[in-house]
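Data availability (excerpt). All sequences and predicted token strings are deposited with the supplementary files. A representative entry, DUF58 domain-containing protein, is shown inline so that the format can be inspected without opening the archive.
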Amino acid sequence: MINFLKSLYLTKRFFYSIAAITVLFLFSFWITAIYPIIWVILVILSIALIIDIIALYQSKGLNAQRILPEKFSNSDANSVKIQIKNDYSFKVFAEVIDELPIQFQKRDFLYTAEIKPAENFEFEYEVTPLERGEYIFGRLNIYAQSILKLAKIRKVFNAEQMVKVYPSFIQMKKLNFLAIDNRISQAGLKKIRRLGHTMEFEQIKEYVTGDDVRTINWKATAKHRSLMVNQFQDEKAQPVYSIIDTGRVMKMPFEGLSLLDYAINSSLAFSNIALRKKDKTGMISFSAKIDKILKDSSRMSQLQRIMESLYNISTDFKESDFGSLYAGINRFITHRSLLMLYTNFEHPSALERQLPYLKAINKRHVLVVIFFENTEITKLLHSTPENLSESAHQGIAEEFSQNKVKMAKELQRHGIQTVLTRPKDLSINTINKYLEIKARGLI
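Structure token line:
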């Protein structure tokens, strides 16, 4: 009986009808002729309510399920599918209330539908997570009404479901498609003209029209008495590491995502491209000390290991120790490698403290320092000041913006490759830099 009462709800139509009948009873005090008619209406309403309730409880009613993907992609729209089967012999008016994970902070989810008898009804909605981790969906509540709409019953499905939110594999697949399809110029990516040759020798062959005359092997030419050229092939399986700073500087949020999440999404997309280019990829995360090291590998299964490693990375609000990073790189990375360092510097003094370590790392490896423009400051620079205070703020913002450019030039002056980028353009610019370095044969 308790379960019956908990699942039964009276609708607004019923209460409006009761309110109207109450008003009619009030008027019957002056117009006595309508008094018996009102009682008839009340009896009819009561009978209709009983019929409505019986109809709603006469069969299994509705069956529903929530279908979640195996994992969600961070910062991307992910689809959630709801399937409802109507086992009633009449059309049902359904209200769907899904209890979304607490991370979305959304408590007004409501979807309404008219479902025909014996129909399998299906709809989808999208959610966009902005944090990695476990997301728990609560109950799936379905409220069913008949055509009378005097009462409705609630049925609960999927008591609890959990889905993990991983770094943006949707972005990774998109960029992977563009690279494989040789359309790097699309979506902000650009083609890099190959300069010169790599140093991996393949064979000596006879010269044919179109061969680069700079590759002529004069000793072989003299021996065979015909022009012979050296043929080279791209060097492959070169070690490439994504190094992610997880210190407090990476907690800064832009457009809903922290700099750390932008770096993680970019690392996954970049690692996928590097693996497709037959390079070996690895990953390091650090703050006050080195937290995780994933040794480089050229196997495609490495991508899944990188994704699992990136899934649990979080900031610890400590000062990043580049000295510890330098010691760790010397210890664990023995071959000359391409190191893509994701970090951030807001003031030249911060860069000055770490510059000796960056220069030392760059002596043994090809180091690319990737840091971020402050897009909020950029917005302030493009706004029109309305008073003296706003003009002063704009002047300070200009200084901060110029400091970023100066820091990039300072790194380049010491021979360190640099990427200064807006957070949302991080993946594109990082891949561009990697392709440029490959084209120039720096690794």
